[in-house]
Amino acid sequence: MMLPQVMLALTVILGLASAGRGTVYYQDGAKGSCGQANTDDAIIAAISNSWMHFESPSPYCGRQIEVKNVGSDDQVGGAGKTLTVTVADTCPSCGPDDVDLSIGAWNSLTGNAEYGTFDAQW
Length: 122
Description:
The protein is α/β, with parallel strands linked by helices.
């Protein structure tokens, strides 16, 4: 079994993809687990504890990942759009390969769709 930190490094370096759900969250001016407060329009994301290793701050803080919207059963638009986001927080309620997006990132990837979920590769 490959360790999550090795998987993330391979994803970034080799372009391998993790597949999960794309969701949306409010930053609400609070500091994320990476120690910085961001506005809701910042292009950031939170990833699961399986990647962040229950550390605060995690070694993944500040890393950039490319997220692709590959479609949705929730009628969320934007299929085919990609966006590079900065890891800025932990999503404790996310599945292992889900990516929780700031409102700014969500709007960019979905064409300002109503909140729901989409299939994400990153």
